[in-house]
Give the backbone structure.
Amino acid sequence: MPIYECLTVSGTLSQDVRDRLARIITDVHAEETNAPADLIHVVFPELPRGHAYTAGSSSAPILIRGQVRAGRAPEVRNAILRRINDACRELLPEIHPMRILIAVIDVPAKWAMEAGRILPEPVESEEKEWFEDLNRRMAPIAQA
Amino acid sequence: MPIYECLTVSGTLSQDVRDRLARIITDVHAEETNAPADLIHVVFPELPRGHAYTAGSSSAPILIRGQVRAGRAPEVRNAILRRINDACRELLPEIHPMRILIAVIDVPAKWAMEAGRILPEPVESEEKEWFEDLNRRMAPIAQA
Amino acid sequence: MPIYECLTVSGTLSQDVRDRLARIITDVHAEETNAPADLIHVVFPELPRGHAYTAGSSSAPILIRGQVRAGRAPEVRNAILRRINDACRELLPEIHPMRILIAVIDVPAKWAMEAGRILPEPVESEEKEWFEDLNRRMAPIAQA
């Protein structure tokens, strides 16, 4: 965690825009929460053309849903929402602002497991030991 | 918000059924909650054939998940669930009723941003100003 | 319910691995919660190649998200997380353990409808009547 899912209709985002949006979302989340970038996933599922509707008619919205550990301050979430929205506006000026919906949804840390461990609460005391343990046990991961 | 995701195995829903289901879900949500239709998204992600299992065997269920602002009365959710279920039964009589699963999941309004604004709570006092502001700022959106 | 979504980049899982993982997740959930297998859905949505990023770079993680009725003991969730993680490690030894993220997310029973009925709380008193009713009303379902 976190996972950010950016759902669009096929053809809405170019490879370059995906690359840049993934980088921006990763940086925003890492900067606002101090999470290690190596735990931040951004994925781009695609809907077949014609499989999205708004107001009952065919549409092509940008629907971004993050799932993050619960327990952050509201200001952290607001900053993440604001900065991702700004990035979408800049990268995708042709998309109407009302077609950009972003949600950052809390998931209790205890509900998730990564690298075979239940996640720590997002407080320094729990994270410190967890990250140290990860570093001890994990070899560097080749990107693939 | 809301977003309704209707997940099926590719080939389960025809274009006509998607069109009709999108329209029905939009109308049901708008009627039961008084939300403006223009904020209601319905999407139809598809699983490749053979990528869904029930009881460990290949299956073709209808899995509908709505994410809506938290704070509605239970009767509102029940009516939405009931009416979407009834629509699926009517549009898809060949699907066994036990293969139709619908969930309407609360998301706190403050966790989401649309059109660059944090969503209002689903109460008239907050929504009135928000909708007026949207109307002021937004030009009509061409469906695309 | 439950639904387990196993999200990967296309090409990560073979048909055989999907078959086995679906069976294992179904067995684990049924054994740990006493839910009837016939209500357990496991689905494998796929991302196009190049549509997943970790730390801002292209990656191929295993992202598993279960949605289950709220109200289980923490030990039940922990056992589910542990056993699914172990299965992924065994079936997919080439995936780095830090690229396996599993979350089991609570959904209040009252938020969902299956077979046309609001789900019962996960306690015997409510489930008994519900399952008996299902058995009365439902003909056996041919897997399809």
